[in-house]
Design goal:
alpha/beta; Rossmann fold; 24% strand; globular; binds 5'-O-[(S)-ethoxy(hydroxy)phosphoryl]adenosine
Length: 636
């Protein structure tokens, strides 16, 4: 375990240096000493960002589930692998040991095989945060099927788009889900989606809310019965290092969501190594990441990273506000959580509730606090530090992306210093840089530019499913020989990075990436709408919320249109899901455009952010008069 745990600043500096001076040697050393392989690699790294093509551990053979489960059985078979905390606090916690997880995953894997799933097939998983979600992910990996988890808050339409894009042959879902005091009819959403998906042959349904649902003969089967009859032994499929492990969709600036493809060996090595170090995990710690497995944070830091380290990882089914705003802290106390990892949007929502929800609970078990998904503002940072960390637990502000697979910029608790609102230093092996408008790399400190990465790291996504051209255009075309993140950032006087936000048309609402194009498409479907443009504006809890400027076909109808507002949000709800609803809708007689007809979002963004003094010269627009009208009627 030579370099595996970074436990002081000197070591961080030394290890960082060796990881960038000789990345191949560095990652080979980590891979050899900390994982089990059926066959070693022929080369550690082959890469060419101009194609782009990236291969880590080429020729190696392995199965990630043997690394996440089987190898722990001898040493920690009876240790809890997954700690499941149900939505309802009166329902019992489930402690699934590594031995039990092994059996459950094998049974599930046998069911998949029996239902015709083969290596390389895509399986869509549309489940709430119940153990079956993690187990089905691992069962796919066990047999070499590619999982595509779709967050169970997405609508039928969004689900169908994702199923069709990767041509999934099976979907795994549940009869419904609990969300606070509500239940959600997941199976109904799946049935509706499947009307548009001819590729799906089988639907496996987990029982969760015990509701009466419609089961389509020949297509739908109860998971419970199949699992009951399946054997708990299933040989792990031998996978190539570069075989796809999963597809996960993320929003782009334009068009369809992008199915990011992650492969097996590099992803395993990087998520395991970052988990151990970013969270400074110790053998008996109970670690809790509050994300949903439907997002990359859940894939890498609820399932794969923790399990590869033999950790105890918590899965929470519910919401922070149920039965009241003390729920998170109740769980922290109950399970003596050591590392707590959440998103700024949750922190702000909880901060707003005041401290009496915290005072009743003992939070002294917490050693490390994590933040992810969006920039954390100063106020939220201090609230988190003072009230949850009691000023003794370092906050790690982890910057990374679906595309990066693992944490890229973060401090390391009690090793490197924290700084409010700064993600701080690049993680081991990460060669970050800032680029200016003229495509030059900004040298030195106290500079601001576009954030790029100069060298591959093991868990970089290898392609976009079915669209390598888009992969190249999106990430490798803006700057020669560099991976472009889509984020802006600045570097302080000692090299700490602060992420300033997206520089493209992706808007992050409550930590969820939303592309403006699909939302505008949904709005434009409304029969009364002529045109629309969406921008983000600062929101106290969500970080960023959506402001829609909408031109109706018949302008005179604009004034009495609360109904139209409702209908538009309902359309968005149907097409994408509730997370993409607009907070503000302003009807306008037109949208500001360049002479070539391009909508000037920059201007609309400034108006939504109440920064009209910074609009700049608008006289060259095609329709400058509309700007005044929009400012006069802006919703503040
Ligand atoms: C943003 C989530 C500031 C960023 C893991 C990035 C952040 C996008 C941070 C990726 C952070 C994520 N500070 N911004 N600590 N973490 N972001 O793909 O804009 O859901 O590009 O991955 O979230 O979001 P994604």
């Amino acid at each position: 375990m030579s370099n595996y745990k970074i436990n002081n600043l000197q070591k961080y500096n030394d290890v960082y240096k060796s990881s960038v001076n000789d990345p191949e040697k560095f990652w080979e050393d980590i891979a050899v000493k900390n994982f089990i392989w059926k066959k070693k690699w022929d080369s550690v790294l082959e890469w060419d960002f101009s194609k782009p093509e990236i291969k880590w551990f080429k020729g190696a053979k392995l199965n990630i589930t043997e690394n996440c489960i089987d190898r722990h059985l001898k040493v920690r078979g009876d240790k809890t692998a997954i700690l499941f905390e149900p939505n309802n606090p009166d329902e019992e916690t489930q402690y699934i040991t590594y031995n039990q997880l092994h059996k459950k995953v094998n049974k599930f894997a046998n069911v998949l095989k029996q239902e015709g799933v083969k290596k390389g097939d895509r399986v869509c998983i549309y489940l709430p945060m119940i153990p079956e979600l993690a187990i089905s992910v691992l069962a796919c990996a066990r047999i070499g099927a590619i999982h595509s988890v779709v967050f169970a808050g997405f609508s039928a339409n969004a689900l169908a788009t994702r199923i069709n894009d990767s041509k999934c042959s099976m979907i795994i879902t549940a009869d419904g889900s609990f969300r606070g005091a509500k239940t959600i009819d997941l199976k109904g959403i799946v049935d509706e989606a499947l009307e548009k998906c001819s590729c799906i042959k089988n639907v496996l349904v987990a029982k969760r809310i015990m509701s009466e649902i419609n089961m389509k003969n020949g297509r739908d089967k109860w998971l419970e019965t199949l699992l009951y009859n399946a054997s708990d032994q299933c040989e792990a499929e031998i996978m190539d290092a570069e075989d796809p492990l999963f597809i996960l969709y993320t929003s782009g600036s334009t068009g369809m969501p992008k199915g990011m493809v992650h492969t097996t060996a590099g992803y395993m090595v990087y998520t395991a190594y970052t988990f151990k170090n970013a969270f400074q995990y110790n053998e008996n710690d109970v670690y809790w990441c509050t994300a949903d497995i439907g997002w990359i944070t859940g894939h890498s830091y609820i399932v794969y990273g923790p399990l590869a380290n033999g950790a105890t990882t918590v899965m929470f089914e519910g919401v922070p506000s149920y039965p009241n705003y003390g729920r998170f802290w109740n769980i922290v106390e109950k399970h003596k959580i050591s590392q707590f990892y959440t998103a700024p949007t949750a922190i702000r929502a909880l901060a707003k509730q005041g401290s009496h929800f915290i005072e009743n609970y003992d939070l002294s078990s917490i050693n490390v606090l994590g933040s992810v998904g969006e920039p954390i503002n100063e106020e939220a940072w201090h609230w988190y530090n003072d009230n949850i960390g009691k000023k003794k637990s370092p906050i790690i502000d982890t910057w990374w992306q679906t595309e990066t697979g693992g944490i890229m910029i973060t401090s390391i608790p009690n090793v490197t210093p924290t700084k409010p609102t700064f993600a701080t230093l690049p993680f081991i092996g990460v060669q970050a840089c800032l680029m200016d408008e003229n495509n030059n790399e900004l040298e030195g400190n106290q500079v601001e530019g576009k954030l790029c990465i100069k060298f591959p790291w093991p868990s970089i996504a290898r392609t976009i499913w079915g669209n390598h051209k888009r992969y190249k255009e999106t990430y490798f075309s803006a700057f020669k020989n560099k991976y472009f993140t889509g984020d802006g950032a600045l570097r302080d006087d000692v090299g700490n990075y602060r992420i300033t936000g997206r520089v493209d048309d992706v808007i992050i609402v409550s930590g969820h990436n939303l592309g403006t194009a699909p939302i505008e498409d949904a709005i434009n479907e409304h029969p009364m709408v002529a045109e629309s443009a969406i921008v983000g504006f600062p929101h106290y809890i969500k970080g960023c919320a959506l402001y829609g400027y909408i031109t109706l076909k018949n302008v005179s109808e604009s004034n009495h249109n609360d109904n139209t507002r409702k209908e538009i949000n309902e359309l968005i709800n149907i097409r994408i899901g509730p997370i993409a609803k607009l907070d503000k809708i302003q009807f306008t007689s037109g949208l500001p455009k360049t002479r070539s007809g391009k909508i000037m979002r920059r201007i609309l963004r400034k108006i939504a952010c109440n920064e009209t003094s910074k609009l700049g010269d608008t006289s060259t627009l095609l329709n400058p008069e509309v700007v005044k009208e929009i400012i006069d009627n802006a919703l503040m």
